[in-house]
Amino acid sequence: MADSIYWIKHVESYVDSSGSSSQQVASLDAIAALLKNDMLKIEQLVRDMEMYLTTTDSIIRSRVAFATIFENAGSSIESAFASIVYSSEWKALHLVGAIEASWSITTTIVEGLLKDGEDGGILLLAELLQRLASKPLNDAVIRSLIGFFTERLADWKALRGALVGCLALMKRKSNVGMVTINEARAVAQSYIVNLQVQSLGQHDRKLCYELLECLFDRYPDVVAALDDNIVHGICEAIDGEKDPQCLMITFRIVELLARIFPDPSGPLASFAEELFEILGSYFPIHFTHPKGDEVEVKRDELSRALMLAFASTPLFEPFAIPLLLEKLSSTLPSTKVESLRYLSYCSVLYGAERMAQHAETLWASLKDALFNSLESISSLELEPVDDMGFQGNQIATEALLLLQKVVQQNEGSFLSLIVGDEEINLTINSITTFKNYGHIPMPNKKKLHAVGRILSVSARASIASCNRVFEIFFVRLMDTLRLSGSCGDIQLEDGYKFSGRLDYGALYLCIELLTACRCLVLGSEGRTSTTVSAHETWSCMLQSFCRSLTEAFSFTLVTTADEESQNAYVHSGVRGLQIMATFPGSFLPVPKLIFESILMRLMSIITLNFDNGLLWKLSLKALVEIASFVDTRHDSDKATCFKGLVVERIVLLLSSNDSTMPLSLKLKAISEIGPTGLNFMLSIVQGLEKAVFDRLSDALVHGNIESAESAVQLLECLSNKLLPCNTSWHGLRFDKIGGYEEFPFHFAVDIWDHIAKNTDFNIGLLDNELLDATMTAVKLAVAKCSEESQSIIIQKALNVLFSSATFPSEESISGVNPSKLEASQHNHGLNSFPYRDKWIVSLFASVIIALRPQTRIPNVKVIVHILLTTLLSGHVPAAQALGSMVNKLPLKSNGMETSDVCSLEAALDIIFSSSVWTPDDSGLRRFCGTSDGSEIGSSGLRLSFLSSSLLQVHAIVGLAWMGKGLLMRGHEKVKDITMTIFSCLLSNSDSAALSLKQHPIKDSDEEDVLPLMKSAADAFHILMSDSEACLNRRFHAVIRPLYKQRFFSTMMPVLISSVVKSNSSITRSMLYRAFAHIISDTPHSAILSEAKKLIPLLVDSLSMLSEDISNSEVIYSVLLVLSAILTDNTGQEAVVENAYIIITRLLGLISYPHMMLVRETAIQCLVAMSALPHTRIYPMRSQVLRAISNALDDPKRAVRQEAVRCRQAWLRIQDLYSWQQLHLGVFNIEKA
Amino acid sequence: MVSELINANPTVYEKKERRVRITPADVDEYAVELIDQLEIFDILSDYCIDIKDPEHPYSLEELKVITEDAIELDAKRNYVRVTFTPTVEHCSMATVIGLCLRVKLMRSLPSRFKVSPLSCVNKQLNDKERVAAALENPNLVDMVDECLGPSYE
Question: Which residues cross the membrane (chain B) (predicted)?
């Protein structure tokens, strides 16, 4: 039982007339909830509320008393109620409460008291009932309530409440007590008698319609019994309705009405005309109000609802179809589209019989719409029908849909109309008069297109219609093309030749028909109900013409000079061949000979006509289509044929050195045909691999530059097209299918074999590109392999690596000391590496980069040493490989201590104890400026052992990549590396001290440390940016979420405090550089939350960076960060605060001479700034306008265009007090 | 503004397909791109917002009041001249259109340019003093600003 204090609080808040309405609703809900859960008994409520109930303040009373109705009352409180009722002057509302609570109070008393009742109270009661929709009420309660509300319908003052109440009660489910049929009838009768819907306000109308809808939905029997009355009532109610929301419901009511009275002689029939007159006036749906209003109902929804209402009963047919046909002739395209859509929908539902009488007029209108809406056929418009979805042709699309529907519905009569149509026949007859495509005048082309579409759609509608169309038109077309049918494989007579051009029109129509029947066959395969037999008339006709058609299509591909006609013929010829080759074999057995001849024709174009771009492209496309058709239909005969004639020939082309056909085209052909089928892919990749190795050895061993170039192309094709496409195959995981998964593995192994075999490399200067291409291919191939395969590959690679003389073998590594290492670096800079060794180490690095984390790497110690020494010579892949290793090595290994598997900690120990750098804890503490420096600086590294600054730079790059690997997996050691890099960044201020301490002889001045500082700053770019070459998902990197955000928030305080402390301008500019790198790669959300702190720094960095030309890229990325802050709402506040410095800085960048994008972006930022509160930016207005007017004369167009926008935006910041000066100011600027 | 429309039913043309600018693949950072006709036309027509015909909600481009060919330009001698064709002859709105064009050009071109738009029927727009005087008339300025349209809403 609830504590009375608790709910009294709600009552208080409810009756408090100063409270907001939402508060009152909340209180009401709270009390209702208590009652529902029986936490509060009605007796208690009444008793405790007596004070409120008897108060003289009528407002409070009216608000309060209805709260008593919640519960079906127990008899125990009858007396309580009775006494209250009698003792005070209750108004309507309270009595309603009483009615609900205690039915023993006689209705006469109630009635009597109701007479001076308050109407608002009824509404409150009604609304309360809505809330109690799932609370069971007993029948007696419901009966009284519904009776009460039904009567109230007559009282216009209480109408709203009555409507809501009726609605709430009628919607109740049977398990909580619902209104009976008799009561519902009473409601309906009262509704018809009392309500003048159209004289009510919008909300009341909506309620009226909702009540009707509910009545129709839940009490159809009641409505059915009411007969004419209700139909008439509805006509009256909806006539003249204009509100979209109400209309949505009225349309639905009409739909329900039609469902209740389906009888063609029933009450609806007599009112059909009247009802449709009302409905029809809404078509087409058109909103007169401007779009600015918040229209809750979308035009499309409303239009759909009206369409459903139109189609709800065939009784509307005599009125609807003429109306729609009339609207179809409208000049407004949208109306046309709507009419067509309605016609399609309605004609299906009205039925064939009713539609038959309209066939003639419908056909005339349709023809008219089609002939006028379709563009003329241009040479490029012979694409399949499915591509016709573009907006301009919506009319045509809808018209064709309608045509298809009516032809399907009424084959006989509609087809006769089409077949007998004068215009169509005329068009077909006239095509013979124009021999060549170029000779056909525009209107005829248009007509031809329309006829083609019409025939195609009718043929596609059904088998019977297809037969009919073929019988009548196909033979005529064949005659026009002078083709003769033949049975079987009879060879054409030798004398038979095509003289001159074929009739384009006939060719076009012929292809339309072929497409149509192919669609029909393919479509029917899915359905079992209609199977197309191979003995249909049209299929027999097609078979007999099969051969001559193919010949004709092949013939059209002969090139001529006239380009426009040429393209048109080429399009149809290739398309025709493609259709012939892709007819399902079970249905139209295109003889093998013909299939082969089609393939050969297309292949001869691929190999010979490569200078004709369009023809070549289309032929390739056709081949690809044929290939995927053959593959999906598992037609082994054709597949073998295709493989032999197409795939193998292309592969042959690739390996042959014949240079007539450009390599790029060969590669395009294989990369498009390859992915169509597994079978084809296998032969293609094998052929490609062979070609790659031929060229590679030619290039590497004999130094053949041409071979090197083509090898690069081949490798790029392999990595960009063929390796990526094989992850999925028709929805299957491709690398699980037997056969192909082996390919990447074999490729990688073969590469190593190849290198091992050729000990003598003679490649010249051009090898970098080739090496890059090979590395990419190796990386991708290794990344695809499984762990076991990867283990084999790495072992193989290691063997080759150790066999090379340059790299230290396992035994020799232990004794290397730093000076020796350094000396060896001096002797063997990367450029002095033998070519072969450079290749070996690069490819080895590629393998390491692409390994999966689970793959075990043997000999980690040796590998780390080799990579470390190599990276010091400036070999970036080695650094990336080290980064990948530390990213993926397993953490502390437990069970595998004994094996040769190395844990991350062990590897890091090797790396950090390397003689390349030594632990340092003296320098850092000073410069990081942290009081507890011991923590940060303790395990920092020092590069000072390396005397040459170049080596130091390389070491920094190496550290950066390793840092990136650790950062991405979220390992704490990254802190040490970052601090090492950071100390190098600050080495300027440290240089004097360092040089004294470590190298007293060497004079280390600023010039000397500058490259080191710069590379340290750029190391942050490596750390933060995403790399394509390594450490990404493709190469199985371990990536911890939000690592960038984390790094950003750790580094920012350090950077900011260092900037503040630094007193050398060089150091500061380097710090800003690092800062710029970090923020430009941090996700914007992280930046935005720190915007306030960052903006001043960001602006400073912009000014600092713009001093050096080489920084333009960095400036640009910082500007992008700034514009992200400017355009985001969360950044606004910080921007407003710093408006002045931002604008000043941006104005400086408007004239930044070294990069157009910087100027353009700066101006765009200024445009964004113009949206800030005017009081903030107005002081800068004239300054901005002056600077912008200079930008109007920028050498680059894009900048000028932005400047115009910007100037316009800033000019609009009006000075309210002196607008005249503003405009005169424009002239002053102009004069200046 | 005017209570009665001067040309109540103007012919509306579809926007003509724009000449597409071919941008070279590798842009020389320091090369100069001269102002050309299309750029002026762009300024006058579609980017920012179309200059609106004061009488109709159509843009001047749609009404063919301005076309690309009607722009004479000598970028080296800093000279630009726009000839526009009012929808009907002796259109009293020609003055306002001319004013709009002129103001728009003045606001959008470098100050070194001399702007002289010219209607077929009304020559007074070339008079600099008159334009200045016109812009001191608050009603006219409001009208011009309305024609030029808000740029970013």
Answer: none
- Domain range for B113 is 37-148
Contact B33 A1195 (CB under 8 A): yes
For A473-484, how does the pLDDT look when each residue is reduced to its tens digit (9 = 90+)? 887 888 777 776
Asked if the structure places residue B26 within a domain, the reply is no
Q: Give domain limits for chain A.
A: 805-901, 915-1082, 1087-1232
DSSP per residue, A1199-1215? HHHHHHHHHHHHHTS--
A1192 in reach of chain B (CB within 8 A): yes
Please tell me which of the candidates A1193, A1200, A1211 has its beta carbon nearest to residue B107: A1211
Round to whole Å and give the CA distance between A918 and A921.
10
CB contact under 8 A, B33 and A1196: yes
pLDDT, one tens digit per residue, over A651-663 is 887 777 666 777 7
Question: Within a domain: residue B8?
Answer: no
Q: Which of B32, B108, B136 sits opposite A1192 (nearest CB)?
A: B108
- Count how many domains chain B has: 1
CB spacing of B107 vs A1154 below 8 angstroms: no
pLDDT at A727: 45
- Angle (CA) A734 A738 A740, round 5°: 60
Q: How many angstroms separate the Cα of A954 from the Cα of each of A726, A831, A1019? A: 38, 14, 11
Segments of chain A scoring below 50 in pLDDT: 53-120, 292, 379-391, 487-497, 529, 727-737, 810-830, 898, 918-940, 944-945, 991-1004, 1215-1222, 1224-1228, 1230-1232
Supply the pLDDT for residue A16. 63
Decide if B142 is inside a domain: yes
The reply to whether B23 falls in a domain is no
Write down the pLDDT at residue A740. 60
Confidence (pLDDT) at A762: 66
* H helix runs in A1106-1196, sequence order: 1112-1127, 1132-1137, 1139-1150, 1156-1169, 1174-1177, 1181-1191
Question: Is A1223 close to B135, i.e. CB distance below 8 A?
Answer: yes
Residue of B nearest to A1190 (CA): B110
CATH, residue B101: 3.30.300.130
- Regarding the domain with residue range A1087-1232, which homologous superfamily does it belong to in the CATH classification? Leucine-rich Repeat Variant (1.25.10.10)
Nearest to A985 by CA among A923, A908, A934, A914: A923
Q: Say whether B107 and A1227 touch across the interface (CB within 8 A).
A: no
pLDDT score, position A1146: 92
Return the bridge partners of A914, or none. Answer: none
